[in-house]
Amino acid sequence: MGTWRGLVPARGIVHLHSPYSHDACDGMPRDATGAPNEPCLADLRRAVCADHIDFAAFTDHDASMADEEFTTLFNMRGNDQPVLDTGGQQIASRLTCDDGHQVTFTVGGENDLMPVMMHRHPPGTVQQRHDIYNGVDAAAIQAYRDAGGLAWIAHTEQHDIDQLRTLLPDGIEVYNLHANIDPKIRGPYLGLDPAGAISAAVEFADTNPGHPEPDLALLSFLEPNQPAIDRWTQLLADGHHMPVTAGSDAHENALPIMLADGERGDSYRRVMRWFANVVLVSDPQDPAQVEAALGAGRLFAVFEMMGTPVGFDIHADAAGGPIELGGTAPVGSMLSVSVPTVRDLDPSLPAPEIHATIIHIDAGGATTIATGPGPTLTAPMSAPGAYRVEISIIPHHLGPYLVDLGTAHAEVERPWIYASPIYVQ
Q: Do the beta carbons of residue 308 and residue 402 sit within 8 Å?
C-alpha cells in the first residue's frame, strides 16, 4: 500500500469470533465433549494467512469466553508463539504462516460493548467477569481499559446517540457486515430491504459455466451503514475524538450456502478478504503499537474487495510538520489528500471511477468542503472541528468478473475507504 512518513500499514480485523463464541461455527462451536470445533478454527487460521492479515482482534461473546482462562482465548495451535509484556504476562499470540507471514492475535469480547486487545480478564469470579462483559455503563468501559484494552462499540446502528454520549468509548464501528446481512438488523436499524442481502448473495451461488466470481458477493448488497455514520457525525460535532473501524463480525454462521469455489458464502477467508482496518505503525508486529494507533485513530477502513489502494495519504500540513490521522492540527493548517488508485489494476479492464470527499464537522454539523477525483485534493483547515475523508468508487473494473450476472452491480458508487479524522483546535 505504500509508506507514510516512516509509518507502514498493518492490515487488521477488528471484530472476529472464534469457537469461544456460543454462536460461531453455525452454532456448533464445540463438540459433544466440549472441545473447540477444530475444523472451524482451522478455517479461521488458514484465512488470516491467505488474506495476509497482520493483526486479528478476537472479540468473542461472554458465552463462553468469560468461562475460560485468558490464555486459552488466543486459540494457539502448533508452533504459535506467545507475545509477552515486560512482566512476562501473555498479551497476544503469533501465528507463522507457511509462507513466513506472521499474524498477531489479541483477545477481547463483544456483547453490548466490545473491548478489544485486552491484556487480561477483568478481576473477580467467573460470574463477575460475565457481569462486566455484559455491562453497558462507565464502570464496564473503565474495567476494559484497566484490563489493558480499548473500549469499542460494535453495531453502532443499535446504540442511540445519548447512550454513546454517556459512554464515550475509545472508538466505534462505522460499518458492520452482520448488520448489512441480517434481516432483523437491515430492516429495523438500517432501513434496508430486510431480505435484500441474502437474496442478492444467492445469485453468487450459481455453479454453472458463466457464474460470477464468488468473492464479489458483497458487491451485490454493500450499502453504507448510514445510521452509524450519522451517530459518528454527531459525536464529532460534539467535539469528541472518535476513531472508527469496519467490523467483519466473522462467525461462519451467516451464509452457509456453498458458492462455486467450494467455500461457504461467509467463509472466514472470504469475509476477511472483503475489507480490513489499516493502522499506520513503525512495526506491524508490535501489538502495543497497533493498539496505540487504533486508539489514537491513526487508521482507515478499506473495502479491499474493490482493490487494494496504493498512493493513499491524508495529512495536515502545519507549521511544525505533517500531522497524521488522529492527530490535532492548529487552525490554518492545510489538509492534503492523495487519492488512491487500485493496486496492479489490469489495464485491459474498464477503469474504476474514484472520488474523494473532505468533510468538516463542527457544532453546526457536517459540511463537504472539497470533492473530486484527484489525484490530489486539498482544503484549508480554517475552523476548529473534525476533518474526515471518504473515498468512494464505482468499480467498473469488477464488471467482467460478474460474467452472466451482468455488470449492474459494478456500476453503482460504493464506499471504498472511511478514514478516521484529523482534528483542528
A: no
Chain centroid to Cα 324, Å, comes to 19
The domain total for the chain is 1
Q: What's this model's pTM, rounded to 2 decimal places?
A: 0.97
The answer to whether residue 60 is domain-embedded is yes
368 found inside a domain: no
Domain around 221:
8-306
- 3-class secondary-structure state, position 128: helix
Per-residue pLDDT reduced to its tens digit, 96-109? 999 999 999 999 99
What is the DSSP annotation of 2-44?
A: --BTTBEEEEEEEEE--TTBTTHHHH--B-TTS-B-HHHHHHH
CA distances from 366 to 64, 233, 236, 279, 297 (A): 41, 7, 9, 25, 19
Residue 399 cell numbers, joined: 464488471
Burial 282-313 (b: 16+ CB within 10 A, else e): eebbbbbbbbebbbbbbbbbbbbbbbbbeebb
